[in-house]
Amino acid sequence: MFLQQLVNGVALGSVYALIALGYTMVYGIITLINFAHGEIFMVGAFIGLLLVSYFKVNVFVAIIGAMIFCMIMGVLIELIAYRALRKSSRLSALISAIGVSIFLSSLALMVFGADAKGFPDGAFPVRQIHVGSADISTLQILIIGVSAVLMMGLEFIVQKTKIGKAMRATSEDYNTSALMGINVNRVISFTFALGSALAAAGGVLVGVLFNAVSFNMGLMAGLKAFAAAVLGGIGSIPGAMLGGLLLGVSEVFGVAIGYSSYRDAIAFTILVLVLLVKPTGLLGQKITKKV
Amino acid sequence: MADFLNSLVGSIDPYMLQILVNVGIAIVLALGLNVITGLTGQLSLGHAAFMSIGAFTSAMVTIKTGLPFVANLAVTGVVTAIVAAAIGFPILRLTGDYLAICTLGFAEIVKVFFLNFEPTNKALGLTVPPAKTSIPMPIYVWVVAILAIVLVTFVQNSRFGRALKAIREDEIAADAMGINTARYKIQAFALGSFMAGIGGGLYAHFLSYINPSDFGFLKSVDILAMVVLGGLGSVPGAVIGSSVLASAPEFLRFMSQYRMLVYGALLVFLMVFRPNGLLGGVNVTELLLRAIGRKPAGK
Fold this sequence. Notes:
Chain A: It is found in: Cell membrane. The complex is a heterodimer. Chain A is an all-alpha fold. Chain A is 73% helix and 3% strand. Chain A is built from eleven helices and two strands, in the order H-H-H-H-E-E-H-H-H-H-H-H-H. Chain A starts with a helix and ends in a 14-residue tail after the last helix. Chain B has a two-stranded antiparallel sheet. The radius of gyration of chain B is 19 Å and the shape is globular. The model of chain B has no long low-confidence stretch (mean pLDDT 86). Classes of the chains: A mainly alpha, B mainly alpha. The interface between A and B is large, with 49 and 50 residues.
């Protein structure tokens, strides 16, 4: 029972972590809460669904297709809705992000309709594997595996490549890195591309897991992933992974011990409690403000 | 008096009346948030939670007691303010986006609480009996909206308001100047929530049906958009922002299914072209004085 719930929790948590990474990277660089991020996750799920149902590709190709599509979309959103607002008040950019979010979810409502769509049968062969007392489905292995590969890939890009170095520098100090000859616009576009690609992958995985893709799936998932990013300490990449896993596991355990009607409150209760004890999240840096 | 008011309200086209009442309630809510976010600079993403606390409190007061509606609204406002102060006490220590996400989390918790709260019918929602008053509800809404405008204008120019603005501009400096920042922040939070509670009470009795799901994240965002669109910290801005956004979905109704699509795009374009809001950085009194041909004072 315990092991079973733990696996369920880790599977859900890795998806939260994938989405949370996008929030945390964007926040780390331009301190914007990108509220449209949840909708990118939703669009990714729909693109994956379309690819699987109409082009009959397998799930892995669908994930890659959705990632590429959302990458372009993320960069375009930044270009249209945020770039002009980079120098103005952060709240204006926040409202703009909310506008994008409303736009995308109503667009999805118009195009795909109000009811949830499922993946066609046999999109991914589901088998149960017995490990001790737990039934682990191949789906859960797929989710945990794909998330782990993507997160390692991200870690590699951020730590080992030149553009990753530029990203870290920009999030450390935006103005100085611009002075040092880093093309910050390119770094920001790249960050949006990376974050959106991860969210898209998360979208397809969630779509396959729950076998339901709907226009409003982005809102709650986005909010929880954002909560995960803040829980881990916003701006910190390992923090987002940790926060996502923690929220996923605690949510699944909360439901398992009988609080299913409080499901959506569990994540936020943990978040509020942690913030009260550690005001900058679990792995967030303590910021000393100078006057 | 009551007859006259009733016939006055009755003479307005019901559809128009609905829009005007929505605008009135939105003004009360937006001005409340304007105190918290606009004046004090504390980003709150959970204003709808206080609206829902107000709505449910007010509805329960009407159901359980025979208090006249004015007293009901007063009780509602005070209860909401007390809850806000109790919440604000721990969470206002957080700054910036940590505070924002905490208010968001709190709002979700409140929503889930009411969705599971037996006395208010859980997820079925609550049917609110008519308010105990002879004056029609729209008149109440408009009077309260005007009172709210007057109140916030006064607050803005008072010692209290100046302290709030000092906190917004630089919290550390304000602290160094001897302003008790924690106390002022909690008071501002309580005042804003007081207004949100009253707005919620009016909303409950005007619609006569409330459901916890109506007060979700999107409602909070709606109110925030009104404040930011109008221009943070500006009372006329909040009034214009709430009038535009509360009536926009109605005026956009001719586009039927494209309505929310256009609304979202509108938010983006308004922000890109007026990043400080419609009236941000515009001194309305000065403009008015100029318009009637007098030089503004102090220039």
